[in-house]
Amino acid sequence: MAIEIFMPALSPTMEKGTLAKWLVKEGDKVESGDVIAEIETDKATMEVESIDDGTVAKILVAEGTDDVPVGKLIALLAEEGEDAKDVEVPSDEPKKEATPAPEAKEEAPAPEAKPAASPAPAPTPASASGDRIKASPLAKRIAKQEGLDLAAVTGSGPHGRIVKRDVEAALEGGTAKAAAAASAPASAPAAAPVSATEYGPHDDIPYREERLSNMRKTIAKRLTESKTTVPHFYLTIDCEMDKLMAQRKDLNAKLADSGVKLSVNDFIIRAVALALKKVPAANVQYAGDKMYWYERADISVAVAIDGGLVTPVVRGADNMGLAEISSTVKDLATRARDGKLMPEDYAGGTFSISNLGMYGIKEFGAVINPPQGGILAIGAGEQRPVVKDGALAVATVMSCTMSCDHRAIDGAVGAEFLAAFKGYIEDPITMLL
Amino acid sequence: MSESFDLVVVGGGPGGYVAAIRGAQLGMKVVCVEREHLGGICLNWGCIPTKALLRSAEVLHLAKHAADFGLKIGQIDYDLEAIVKRSRGVAAQMNGGIKMLLKKNKVPHIEGEAKISGKGKVSVKGADGKTTELVGKDIILATGARARELPHLKADGELVWTYKHALAPNTMPKKLLVIGSGAIGIEFASFFNELGSDVTVVEMMDRVLPVEDADISKFAEKSFKKQGMTIKTNASVTELKKGKSDVTCVVETKGKKEEITVDRVIVAIGITGNVENLGLEDVGIKVDRGHIVTDEWGQTGVPGFWAIGDVAGAPWLAHKASHEGIVAVEKIKGVKGVHPMDKGNIPGCTYCRPQVASVGLTEAKAKDAGYDVRVGNFPFIGNGKAVALGEPEGMVKTVFDKKTGELLGAHMVGAEVTEMIQGYVVARTLESTEAELMHTVFPHPTLSEMMHESVLDAYSKAIHF
Questions:
Q1: What interface predicted TM-score (ipTM) does this complex get?
Q2: For the domain B2-146+272-333, what is the CATH code?
């Protein structure tokens, strides 16, 4: 009997992915633990390991295939003693594991209501235990018609299957409503965030066409969703950096032997985390008919990578020292650039930081990373003329702009948060308190 | 003496014995009390023996029409006594089977009348007059039901029968009047009509088989009339005047009275729960209109007491009782994932000729519930297998919610439909929409193809009609 290899679910919410690369070819011998393929999900590229020993008999899904549903048979291994040539593809191949494949196909033209890579900390009970969302055809159809995110619905049928009554309960404001609202576009009018071919190319200009990566699709979907459904407003504040720069120099000199080099960004992460603790009303998430008040500051840090960006999370940054933040960020950023982040590295987060200071950007307004309540955009620290005691002076100044979800954070709360943040940045010794 | 059990089941019918076996499977110490026959009405005086009778009627019908199939059979006659004997034999065989099942599952079976003697306590009075005290952590009442009678419509077993008398008739009535055209009434009407009785059916509602879809009732009524039955709807029997060997029935139809004289009368006006002499009131178990009141798990509201099956209310069907028994026991045991039964998914089957089977909402009930519906119909005449069987009469009707594609109900009349309805029940239980039903491959040539075509027809895609 041939060993069947299925498209794995690499995260609780993953429904499909791109089979980016095969690292084996038909006829190759593999052992349990060998990496056989790379799979690209919306956020990361991950490796698939073989669980069994055997010979690769058939590769059923070609390299570069998009939208391979979780559970689809992708390859067959011949067992020891079995001739690879004798391995036959099972006739029920596409239905194995009862993947939602046919369903997905039919729905293909319509954009999914669900932000596939939602970093939402919102519970996803239906899928938490497994790889896919188990729902009856009727439940799926009603959810689709009503724009309900099934990932947020708890199934009450056999084996946690979502059935009609669960969807109806969710629509009536039961269990799933909050989570549905959290993944903002659920029932919002902006149900068609990214239309694939809205505008054709300019034929008179030479161009090349490039297929969107899953990451690019996710960025497009999530940020469209954010900008069209989350009421943003912006608050800008200037922070003087001279003390911080001096202290950083001092600390780095002391840390030279340990190999740790603190960046300005590490200070900013700590300052944001502490300011969120000081002003808990800014560490919140709007969820339809309720608010979530987070008691820990998990800071998502935007990291530019080839072809897009990801936001790995520094968890519990409010309880981390600068050195720990520094090494955590360094590790996350390295893995992000190598495409090796695991889903748990970027899921969740209560607040985001985006720093374009290193590019000399003076200030900018960032787009909120839903369902978070806010994001802080950091500009460059530069020498600017400032007025001190009625006299003109020179100081290193950094402009920071906070984007707030007005449903969750009002102007005064945002201002309070920024004042706290400024306090830590301008007098960094207080970050030790 | 008294003995302690995890579970005491009162009643050995399809609710009780199934609950007892399930309890034993789950490792409970179980006892089952039955006063008469294991298998209950269903097996001894209901479902099974009537199916045996109706099978005789069906074979007779086929034999009478042998020429249609190119066969020559000489003189055709029947022997009522032999038919009844066969029916009783079938019941006896199945009854023995239940005994074995209980034994296999190590469930002791106590014969006698049970009465609640306190919380968690039941005393059983055996036929020999001895009383056994049973103590149970949980007690399931599955005492079933019996034919409902009215003061002016009382059975005597001689001239006026209930189903029980009709199952072992003392004579072959030349003229028979059946009061009530529900499943029980119409099955006996069908049987005796086939055997040559002149049958009149009196129904209070405006159509026969009133719980079925109106189109199905209409179809069935037409067929019954074609077979020679007299059907009186919107009618009731106001008086039975018993003679020596006949009964004169006063039938009132829309205010007009007439007298019909027949040899025998069958009263089939519903059933009522066996709630008497159980000591229900002593522990505070509520009874409403002849049935024990329970929640969706079978809990009576009095801790430790559960009720399932006919005694716990409509629909009075063996398969409903069995399922309730399993749900209650699993709830008691705390089995993970146990769900209350969805009563909307209980199929109903009537074994008259033509057979009738259905599940879910009728078209009218769906509309009343506010659904915008799509309806599919497919006639037997359009199905090759039906014509080959010589059964071209019948139809399959499906009702869908236009908005979501939910299969709201399915209604069938014609040959073998009782064996097919479970296809739609599975579809409903899995919450299939029209899409999954359309994508399902139905084998050819079978009657089941009509189930597919009916779905297709609801979406104007039927191929063969």
A1: 0.79
A2: 3.50.50.60
